[in-house]
Amino acid sequence: MQNFKVKPIGKISVNEDGMFIKLEQEYIPALQALNGFSHLNVLWWLSDSDNEEMRNILIAEQPYKKAPAIMGIFATRSPFRPNPMALTAVQIITIDYENGVIQIAYIDANDNSPVLDIKPYTPSLDRVETPGVPEWCCHWPKSLEESGNFDWGNEFNF
């Protein structure tokens, strides 16, 4: 089996001023022509969940209140994964092209989480008009914007 080498392009920064993607100096030129996009898809590493034990967790016992009693890890958004990668769509607030800092509205990553890649969100490739979801989560918000006002704490068993 082939292994892959992945090199972070930056880190997530969460502080009193907000949430940011801070790029390594060498990747700042890659921001060119990003202006005009309102959102990004951010691929980041779940570094706080990266150990052999967590990589071997393949099932979860009802992580969501209305979910089936046992779920395969691929049917969840759990940080425990064979390859602890995460994908989050984020809204861009501002881009500092000179210093390689993107301020974002929100990301479910911890401070200092490594960023593997960013891609512009484009509706023609990233949006699904009528996605299908199981009955146990069909009451969840239908958009990122609606999610901010949703009581997510009432959905989880952890």
Automatic annotation (TrEMBL):
GO biological process terms, semicolon-separated: methylation
Domain of life of the source: Bacteria
Keywords annotated in UniProt: Methyltransferase, S-adenosyl-L-methionine, Transferase
Residues annotated as domain TsaA-like: 6-130
GO MF annotation, one: methyltransferase activity
Family matches, as Pfam families: TrmO_N (PF01980)
Family as reported in the entry's similarity comment: Belongs to the tRNA methyltransferase O family.
This protein's name: Methyltransferase, YaeB family
